[in-house]
Amino acid sequence: MQEIIYPRSLQKGDQVCLIDPANAYTEAGVDAAVSFLEGKGLQVRVADDMAFRHGTPIERAGKLNRIFQDENCGGIFCIWGGYGTMSLLDYLDYDAIKKNRQVFTGFSDITAMHLAIGQKSGLVTYHSPALYSEKRPTTAEAFEQFWDKIENVERERELKNLNGEDFQVLREGDFEGIVTGGNMTLVSRLMGTEYEIDTKGKVLFLEEVGEMPYRLHGMLSQLRMAGKLQDVKGILIGALTDCDTKGRPGSAMALVQDALEGIDIPIIANVRAGHIKDPITIPLHGKLKASGGRIWQCAAE
């Protein structure tokens, strides 16, 4: 079984860093993120701009590695997603990441880094809410459950949709295993690389935004034909935001179900994590268990 390394829990007074490996940050974005983190008693610094259009991959990764190598930094927070994190993966200092065990959070395009860090170091990272978004501002409840997970990283807790909706059991069954995945497009783009997702004996979590239903079907078909759905313990379908064909509500989920037809493993949908205002924080590379349509984050062993 893959080694599970938990980050150091964040405490008041710890130093953390805001980074932007995908999109360039804005003053409004930085102000919102700093306000939340300082409100939790953290000391916040903002990294040099490392967005996709600002420097070569080696230059951008160099800025990021200086943060990973900083033993005084307890947490690294990606302000939002976008494009460009894949080009950093070959140049990251995975030894420093494993040694310093910093809390690492982000979503969307940051999936590329989640997968690489998990496979190269075994560190639990967090598929988290956006620290700033004009289009889908994160709710206070989502921020609070996010904070609870990074302040108490090893504690068992039940995962629940913050809007009160139940999860949707598409195929019944209990499971327990390390969870991997994230944004479906990034999972697909890493196929055939050394960072290709490892799903054997694991729980697969997938979410998406702004993709047509036929593209979701195609990406899931790719995973299925590549053998990535054969030996998984279970599948969690997160938010499929703005993915329905115009005028056909539900068409995205219908094609997802079609692509997963005949796979004899537990599948749970309506796991509200991803590009929404109130997402669940998912501890990627940590262990989850499910029974009777309920999901728990397992305690550290």
UniProtKB/TrEMBL annotation:
One of its GO terms (molecular function) is carboxypeptidase activity. GO terms for biological process: proteolysis. Keywords: Carboxypeptidase, Hydrolase, Protease, Serine protease. The keyword Electron transport does not apply. It comes from the Bacteria. Residues 176-287 form the LD-carboxypeptidase C-terminal domain. The active site is at S108 (nucleophile), E207 (charge relay system), H275 (charge relay system). InterPro entries: Carboxypeptidase_A_C_sf, Class_I_gatase-like, LdcA_N, Peptidase_S66_N, Peptidase_S66C, S66_fam. Residues 17-127 form the LD-carboxypeptidase N-terminal domain. Belongs to the peptidase S66 family. This is LD-carboxypeptidase. The lineage of its organism: Bacteria, Bacillati, Bacillota, Clostridia, Lachnospirales.
